[in-house]
What we know:
- The complex is a heterodimer.
- By secondary structure, chain A is of the alpha/beta class.
- Helix content of chain A is about 40%, strand content about 15%.
- Chain A has helices at about 1-15, 50-65, 85-95, 110-120, 135, 155-170, 180-195, 215-225, 235-245, 265-270, 290-300, 310-330, 335-345, and strands spanning about 35-40, 75-80, 100-105, 125, 145-150, 170-180, 200-205, 230, 255, 280, 365, 370-375, 385.
- In chain A, β6 (about 170-180), α7 and β7 form a beta-alpha-beta unit.
- In chain A, α2 (about 50-65) packs across α12 (about 310-330) and α8 packs across α9.
- Chain A starts with a helix and ends in an 11-residue tail after the last strand.
- Chain B folds into two domains: about 35-280, no CATH class; about 290-325, no CATH class.
- Chain B has 15 helices and two strands.
- Chain B has helices spanning about 5-10, 15-35, 40-65, 70-90, 95-115, 120-140, 140-145, 165-190, 190-200, 200-205, 210-240, 250-260, 265-280, 290-305, 310-320, and strands spanning about 150, 240.
- At the A-B interface, α1, β2, α3, α4 and α7 of A face α2, α3, α6 and α11 of B.
Amino acid sequence: MRIRTAALTLAALLALALPVLAQTKVPGVTDTEVVLGITTPLSGPAAAWGTTALGAEAWTKYVNAQGGVNGRKLRVMMRDDGYNPGRAVANVNELKDQVFALVELLGSAVLNANKDNIAEAKLPTIWPYGNPQIFAKQPREKVRGVFMVYPDYGDEGEFLVGQARKLEKAKKVGAFFQNDDYGKGGLEGVRRGAAKFGVTLAAEVAYEVADRELGTHALKLKESGADAIVIYSTATHGAGLIKEMAKVGYRPKIFASFPLGDRFVMFRLLGELWEGAYYNVTGAVPGEPEADRVIEIIVKQDPKLKGRESFALAGVAGMVATVEGLKRAGRNLTRDNFIEAMETIKDWSPEGLTGKITWGPNRRHGLNPIRMMRAGKAAGAAFTTVTGYQPFPSHF
Amino acid sequence: MDLVESYAQDLRFARKSFTRALLGLVLLAVVAFPWVAPDYMVFIATLVALYSIGVMGQNILIGYTGQISFGQAGFLAIGAFAFGHLRIWGAPFLLALVGAGTVAALAGILVGFPSLRLKGPYLAIATLGFGVAVYQIFVNWEVLSGGRSGLAIAKLKPMLGLSPVRYEYYVYVLLLAGFTLATYNLVSSYVGRAFVAIRDADIAAEVNGVNLTRYKLLSFAISSFYTGVHGALYAQVLGHIEPQIFNILESITLFVAVIIGGVASIEGSILGALFVILVPKVFSNFREMVPVVYGVTILLVLIFEPLGLFGRWLKTRLYFQLWPFR
């Protein structure tokens, strides 16, 4: 008797687990809506970056308020992966048959763990954040669905050294870098730049993400006598280093990679110590008309984004690109014609938030976007624009 | 009556026919699962299977032998990278798996030496240091970790016409079954009893003829073997590894799984793995609240189920056995 009850219970449970039968031929597309999937770190060590996804979602609400795309409303299925590649793979597996496309995968480890997965599922993957070299090394047919806009760390490192030479006549530079894919990629570029521009690379100082005490790093850099420091770190570590250097009376010129590009964060952490620093950004920043217009729109859709505008803006750009592809693909939407539509995007900028993007049949790295800014007075978080978008090569 | 009259009877896996029937049902469900559940659930079940092996290994060390360890991430990384290199050199899957476990076990013996003198929180700190040291070594020694871009590992080639997800699931579940059986046998053998004796009172154990050096090191070696295999299976499932994956959070996750599932319990290990995989997944719609929900759930289980999830199962079983009396 008990066995039968158990068997019946089990059968009922199994029935509950049965997949909902697909109602349409194209995953994630019905007459009235298009479902877009996002897996992102909403918790864990990289939770701050998950704001990109919230910005992207806010933009879909705005698009829906305007009537949607080709008669369909957009819906976002968002999953938290905590920056953990295993959880991200589980999320992508869950989403791949329920969503039309994946928007904004985040993190090098996450991209590496999913790169074959998305290729096998033929899942369009728009605007992934991570090292472009991951996809550049993939065979061509495996990146068919990938449309990327992201800086190459090496190109940027070379550029930073060149600018230090040109703008501040630096003869000796020091590199402060995170001991991982990102930091070492930047360091390679810095080495190339030093050789190319005839600058001495006086010190290479690595730190770990878990490090909190940066006094010894600052002393090493001071001893090297470098007159400019190139920084490949997180915002908090960069700020920590600059503080420690100031404590020992060492104030070299600062040339920082794009993760230190949020001037509000940097001024909050450093105050006047950030004044005069050169730093890169990848898109429009608050204070520029294009950015301010979009910020107003998304904060109206999701008031929680107030105070986190910089990451949200970066996320909006990816969603605008996705929407553009959906528009161009027309009412009769399939993953194939969406990919073809994305390939027609040429010299186009998402609401002016980035430089001109060009994707094409043989070009998936649509923009390698870097431009340089300089921090002004701390009061009012002032800045000046040093260069426009750099003509770096597309890598795949 | 449930009277055990011989050692052979004691070793029997399932004594009563009802237990056997229940076990059969569970096996049936496990076999049928990938045919009725969507692919992503099968993948999650695969993750649970591989985590279960690691948690079981930790339970041998923490639960049965009473040696607190926080070095799991280190053993995971050693297992994963050993497996990665062996696969790249052309070793077949199973051989690479055994190799990964063996390398991790050797590392376990190395770490086990301080355990001969250290106890409780001191041992926890020493093993924690090991985990951090391994991480540093992999980050800085690029020959081992595959450099900036990490190691890519070829996916398993499905056989018997199964889809890759189902094939991986069956392989992993079979491995879990193998490890479960091995663990049952281990804990009911004289080795397992020596472990338990050390946990309960190491001086008394030594007086009774248990060689502390040998059995403490053995416990470290066996548990590290399991954890190494866990790391290898994780690497295989991800298809790509880099040192950042094996950070301190992984150590804590495994530790939580042991405590939540039930200390010194094999079934509890599987329940613990289910918990640490499923809770973040089920609540992933809570978005930024996930860690809070996760933490609160852990607290609730610890407050109301001090014996872990397996303790709840024991109480439920007892209730039905005694029914209608209480």
